[in-house]
């Protein structure tokens, strides 16, 4: 497998990623268009983002804001502030749609719709993609290749090193078979480094509200493992302004940023900058030219799970 060729003097690449989902999180993610949920998305834009931008300025952090087109259309001035501070925008769908629930044509249409918004409002074309649901349909990898993305950050086949994601043939009663690798680089995500599962409250569903000191320790431990034990690692996190922007969450997050910034050889970088440092090896090139094996076999008829 290839490796990151980090800048001279740097030991670890750190992307403090932000998913600026705003109100559309509650639309495409939960089908909750009520005033209360819309106000939570508004809070993310009007309170959370400014707090994050101030923190990142203080520690000279450049990051990537994965922002659905809907958030750009709804809060254009806030997005311009993000751009003015030098942060990267990553593609994050249009209304935080779930790719596994929609057709190929719909998925492609929404990717293109978001591209049009990025161009019309911000004058940019993002080079990286993050699935709104951190999941793929059977068409997603083909589509992000077709749209010419340089990198993706939606999958979990590694934790603190990038890789070239592979298609798979999924079988129930024989082993799965790996197919060809993608030319799109994967900067892996990690549910353990996402603030929403432990801290985001959803009525009647996700409890959230876990102890913030526990989350701080978990994120610090993962950073320390990568820093101390893995050559040329990447530490990529994900926060949501409407979650992390809460005062008590900003306190532990600021402690984490301060801790990371105090370590020698830390490189705060955008995902695009990190992807540009990737160097393929012969094995990567071999896998990118491997047989195109893919698909999911039918579930055995005598297995009862729906």
From TrEMBL:
Question: PROSITE patterns under this entry?
Answer: NODB (PS51677)
Q: Specify the domain of life of the species encoding this protein.
A: Bacteria
Please provide an example of a Pfam family that matches this protein in its UniProt record: Polysacc_deac_1
Q: In what residue span(s) does the NodB homology domain sit?
A: 35-228
Q: Which InterPro entries match?
A: Glyco_hydro/deAcase_b/a-brl, NODB_dom, PgdA-like
Protein name (record): Polysaccharide deacetylase
Organism name? Streptomyces cellulosae
């Amino acid at each position: 497998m290839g490796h990151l060729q980090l800048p001279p003097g740097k030991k670890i690449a750190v992307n403090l990623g932000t998913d600026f989902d705003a109100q559309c999180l509650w639309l495409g993610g939960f089908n909750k268009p009520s005033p209360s949920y819309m106000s939570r998305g508004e809070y993310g834009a009007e309170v959370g983002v400014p707090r994050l931008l101030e923190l990142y300025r203080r520690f000279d952090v450049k990051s990537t804001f994965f922002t659905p087109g809907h958030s750009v259309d709804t809060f254009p001035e806030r997005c311009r502030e993000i751009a003015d501070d030098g942060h990267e925008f990553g593609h994050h769908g249009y209304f935080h749609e779930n790719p596994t629930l929609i057709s190929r044509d719909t998925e492609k249409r929404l990717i293109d719709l978001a591209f049009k918004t990025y161009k019309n409002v911000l004058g940019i074309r993002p080079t990286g993609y993050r699935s709104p649901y951190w999941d793929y349909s059977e068409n997603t990898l083909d589509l992000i290749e077709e749209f010419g993305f340089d990198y993706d950050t939606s999958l979990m086949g590694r934790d603190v090193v990038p890789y070239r994601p592979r298609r798979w043939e999924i079988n129930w009663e024989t082993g799965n078979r790996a197919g060809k690798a993608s030319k799109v680089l994967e900067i892996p995500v990690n549910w353990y480094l996402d603030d929403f599962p432990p801290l985001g409250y959803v009525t009647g569903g996700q409890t959230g509200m876990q102890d913030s000191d526990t989350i701080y320790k978990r994120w610090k431990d993962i950073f320390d493992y990568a820093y101390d034990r893995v050559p040329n690692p990447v530490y990529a996190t994900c926060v949501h302004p409407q979650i992390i922007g809460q005062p008590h969450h900003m306190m532990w997050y600021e402690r984490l940023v301060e801790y990371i910034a105090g370590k020698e050889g830390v490189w705060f970088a955008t995902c695009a900058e990190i992807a540009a440092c990737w160097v393929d090896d012969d094995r990567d090139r071999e896998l990118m030219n491997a047989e195109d094996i893919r698909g999911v076999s039918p579930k055995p008829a005598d297995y009862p799970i729906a």
